[in-house]
Amino acid sequence: MTARMTSLRFVGRSGQLAELDAALADAGQGRPSLALVGGDSGVGKSRLADELARRAREAGARVLWGDCVELGDGELPYAPLLSALRPLVRDRDPVLDELPPALRAGLETVLPGFGAGPAAGEVGQSRTFEALLALIEGLGAASPVLLVIEDLHWADSSTRAFLGFLARSICDERVLVLGTYRSDELHRRHPLRPLLAELGRDPGTRMLELHAFTEEELGEQLEGILSGSPDPDLVERLYERSEGNALFTEEILAAGLDGRGALPPTLRDALMLRVERLPTQAQELLRWLACQPAADHELLAAVCELEPAELRDALREAVASQIVVVHPDGDYAFRHALLREVVYDDMLPGERTAMHAALAAVLEQRIAGGERGAHVTAQAAHHWAAAGDQPQALASAVRAAAAAERVNAFGEAHVLLERALGLWDRVPDPERLASASQRDLLVRAAALAGPAGDPVRQEALLRRALGLIDERSEPRVAAPVLERLAQALWVLHRQDEAIATLNHGLALLESGEVSHERALLLGAKAKKRVLQSRLKEAEETALETLEVARASGDFAAEATALNALGVSLGGLGRVDEGLDSLRASLAIAKREGLENEEASAWINLADLLHLSGRTEDALELVREGHAALSEAHPSSREWLKLAVAEYTFHLGRWAESEAAIPASARRRGPRALYWRTCRLALQLGRGELEAAAPTLAELEREAAGSTEVQFVAPHAIQRAELARRRGDPDAARRAIDDGLDRIEYCSEDFFRITAVTAMGVRVEADAAQRARDLLDAAAEREAHTRADSLIERVRLAAASAGPVEAAELASAEAEHARAYGEPAAELWSKAVAAWDGLGRPYPATYARWRRAEGLLAAGDRDGAAREACAALDAARTLGNGWIVAEVQALAARARLSLDSEASTDDGETQREELPFGLTARELEVLTLVASGATNREIGAQLHMAEKTASVHVSRILSKLEVRSRTEAAAVAHRHGLASFPPSWSSAHAP
Fold first, then answer.
1. Does residue 62 sit in the same domain as residue 197?
2. Does residue 983 lie in a domain region?
């Protein structure tokens, strides 16, 4: 037996371990995160993970451990997750039984034979991921969870996709995910690199890099191995030769070297020295394990050709030498992946080929016996390919792809089908081997490329498939391929090409033809036109789809058509008709069990109610839809939950709105855009500009490629509002111009065009007021010109729309008057009434504040005070901090009494402090500065020395927190200090 050559003492890495300990403690408090540990081969990543796992277990945490295996990307789906979760199934953890049936079905795709719910083929990958997240959340309810995934550089695409999903989705689950990977394995095009880059940008991810030991740390390692203090010369020699690599040091000693003998030229040579010391039978066993990274006893017995006693002895030798370890599920595997690589690379090519063929034959027997899961079929496919048996490799790749599809491992299935297609012209009778035509395999591979996140490859495969179809003689065969091609083009933002492709497919079919294929193409076109907000064309296409769908009995197409028709009619101002159409779509979807169409109908029906001013009804509906949809639709349920947040915000119930928003959004795509939009609305409403800025930056990054008006419009409005409130009119203008350019390109979405353009008028009102403050006539004229253009667009967009657009128009008319310096109190009264009528207190409160300003400018101080009090009460009720501050500033400038603000004991009103902490004399000086007077002119008018005037001006600039007389003048004009009443001077004279 070989002596122990692994140190039991944990050496170095104190900083990294402390950071991971902190992350684990955070996870215990409901602050989940990911930690990724990189480093060269043998540097100690696994040892660090082991130590963290030991500490986690001692602290009462649940540890799940899985290893990625090197079988090639796309062959063994969910490999580390299977090994991590299999003990839960074996021990029948009660958390598994507590999952809802829909999520149990999703979990079954990762754990074949779990036996829960419907067939796995009916479950989408997103539900699989949601099921895994729900399982982690359930486990974390009892104790924190540490999920360790080793060797991510070999991770399959489904595992990588799940890690990306997990990083985007964890909010308050009690979990820490620790992944390790070899930095020296990541070549420029390595598939792990994009995921690392994505995760590295996430503030919830810790990126750690391990380096080689220092000489002192290596001495500690040797002390732990030798159970005593090592000779300093030995430490120095080993450090020089191992360069601080922990595994290299262990293997040099295990091979019998004391630091004085000849050093193997590489780490691999050192590892082989250790292998070669084993008996012949144990070395043979290691060769089989090198071909099959994890093998159970029965598999080894079937291929090793050893007597049972000989096999047991060989296994004991391999385990005792610390080359092989036994997994909790009973499988044997190399202790370190590098050991397996060394043994595999040392084998002769013919030797490897024969072993792979033998392993494939044994696995085929298992498959024939009924073991048809994705893992066993993928392993067989790998071995046939490695054995060079091309006919078997093609057939097994197609079979393994089907098994991978059943467990939603779309990336792996896609790679396997690509392998089969690559072998197509190299084998005789490929159709018989694949039990499918080349065209069918191309279409299947293309269908998988989309979920695998490769629309470019999807397009290429579909075009190859179309090349094998005679479109003129087989138009119905070509139609679904063209529909999929259009979808791929749409994802690639080639919208015109997508529509042209659908039109081409329709042209191949006979005009007026009643068929499923024609309904499919028409329905796809109607949905695309809705997304583009080309509503009239969408309406026409939806009506045509409806006719064909009903004639052909295609209920799915009928539900799609009614949905698209409802959105189109509502957007064109025929709201009641649109609502009826959407309700009809919902009824069909419920009746026929069309869950995707049902979810879409709930969402669009509520959205149309909200946009038409019936927000209370919309809120009731989304809650009903959320309750009606099963756990099988977590994405749709979350969308409806965010709709609750949006609608309660508009209804002025901001605490309720905040409660409906998840604490964190690590998602990508539409849900992330919606989350950030809702979050940003609250931040801007409350006046939390510092918090809003990073939220907006994240929204801008994710919305950059979006063409959906439902996100483009709020993004433009919120971007402009933040810039406006920060006093940057140019940035606000750019936001409005960019938004309108993106929305108005052939769009008929008058709901959102009105809202964005109305915000544009507000921006110009601010710009005009600022120009007047700075006495910049040219800038004021520019603001007037832009305001005039924008108000006309608001009037046109709102002309035939509903009550929400009418309220936007009322506010825009008042803002337009403000741009020209008109009081416009009556116009603001109309805006208040319009927003109050809709039950939307936020814009009504803003309008009340502006009305108070208008009344004050018109000389109605009593009316201004009453309106300011109303605005202040409403803003405080909302939690609308920034309007509270604006109303209070208005009252301070004009000396208005708000509510029951402080009175003296004798009943006399207490005089308010001067704004900005100015003295009465400084206020007089500021008035003259605002008029453009020099220091000499100020001194002459106020009977003071020029030097004294200069000192006053310096103090004023400091108190106003401005840098120049021009900026001070702008502040004075903006806050009504340019011409203070004479009473201020006498009342506050020093």
1. yes
2. yes
Identity of residue 762: R
Mark whether 223 and 90 lie in a shared domain: no
Question: How buried is residue 876: exposed, middle or buried, by Cβ count under 10 Å (0-12/13-18/19+)?
Answer: middle
In a domain, residue 941? The reply is yes
Cβ atoms 340, 334 nearer than 8 A: yes
CB 681 within 8 A of CB 840: no
Measured over the CA atoms of residue 218, residue 224, residue 226 and residue 230, the dihedral's sign is positive
Please provide the distance, in angstroms rounded to a whole number, between the alpha carbons at the two ends of the chain: 99
H/E element holding 800?
Answer: none
Tell me which amino acid residue 199 is: L
Name the 3-class secondary structure at 64: strand
- pTM higher than 0.90: no
- C-alpha to C-alpha distance for 216 and 387, rounded to whole angstroms: 47
Q: What is the pLDDT of residues 840-898, one digit of tens each?
A: 999 999 999 999 999 998 989 899 999 999 999 999 999 998 999 889 888 887 888 78
Same domain, 852 and 934: no
Q: In total, how many domains does the chain have?
A: 4
d(C-alpha 696, C-alpha 680), whole Å: 7
Crossing angle for the helix pair 280-291 and 267-276, to the nearest 10 degrees: 130
Q: Are 132 and 107 in contact (CB under 8 A)?
A: yes
**Looking at the structure, do residues 971 and 940 belong to the same domain, yes or no?**
yes
**Parent domain of 233:** 216-264
Q: Tens of pLDDT along 927-971?
A: 888 888 888 888 777 777 787 788 788 888 888 877 788 888 888
Any idea of the CA torsion for 189, 190, 195, 197, to the nearest 10 degrees? -60
Judgement on whether residues 858 and 919 belong to the same structural domain of the protein = no
Rg, Å, the chain Cα set: 36
Instruction: Find the helix or strand (DSSP H, E) in which 873 lies.
Output: helix 861-878
Segments in 192-255 forming alpha helices (H):
192-200, 215-226, 232-242, 246-254
Specify if 437 maps to a domain. Answer: no
Where does residue 411 rank: exposed (0-12), middle (13-18), buried (19+ CB within 10 A)?
buried
> 348 is written with which tokens?
């002769």
